[in-house]
Amino acid sequence: MARSLIANLTGAVNGVNRNYAAPSAFVTGTAKVVINGVTYAASDSYWGFVETSSTTIRMTTPPKTGFVMQLFYVEQELTGTPFDPSGEYP
């Protein structure tokens, strides 16, 4: 069962960097960035972002030094097992 998470993003918050990573994969289209406790959609004109992979985003505007960056998202469900990583049985 998929679960919703809010997690700290990894990446330098320095007024220049625009690329950030989530700690786990998210379902495409479910991510919302949380900056200093305020939630923004990907389409926001200033704090918008693009999902560049299932774990990374690229901000439209680089957040300033000291801003707290988090991501609210639905986590992708895992498939397979350690013995069958592809989720396919022989």
Structure, described:
- The protein has 90 residues and is an all-beta fold.
- It has one domain (4-74).
- Helix content is 0%, strand content 31%.
- It is built from no helices and seven strands.
- It has strands at 4-8, 19-21, 32-35, 38-40, 49-51, 56-59, 69-74.
- The protein has a four-stranded antiparallel β-sheet, with no helix packed on it.
- Strand 3 and strand 4 (38-40) form a beta hairpin.
- The two termini are 24 Å apart.
In percent, how helical is the residue content? Answer: under 10%
Average pLDDT across residues?
A: 91
Main β-sheet, spatial strand arrangement: 1-7-3-4
Series of secondary-structure elements, N-terminal to C-terminal: EEEEEEE
- Counting copies of identical and different chains, the oligomeric state is single chain
Number of strands: 7
The biggest beta sheet, please? 4 strands, antiparallel
Structural class: mainly beta
Rg estimate, integer Å: 15 Å
- In one word, what is the shape? elongated
Distance between the termini: 24 Å
User: Stretches where pLDDT falls below 50 for ≥5 residues?
Assistant: none
Tell me the fraction of residues in β-strands, as a range: 25-35%
Count of helical regions: 0
The overall number of domains is 1
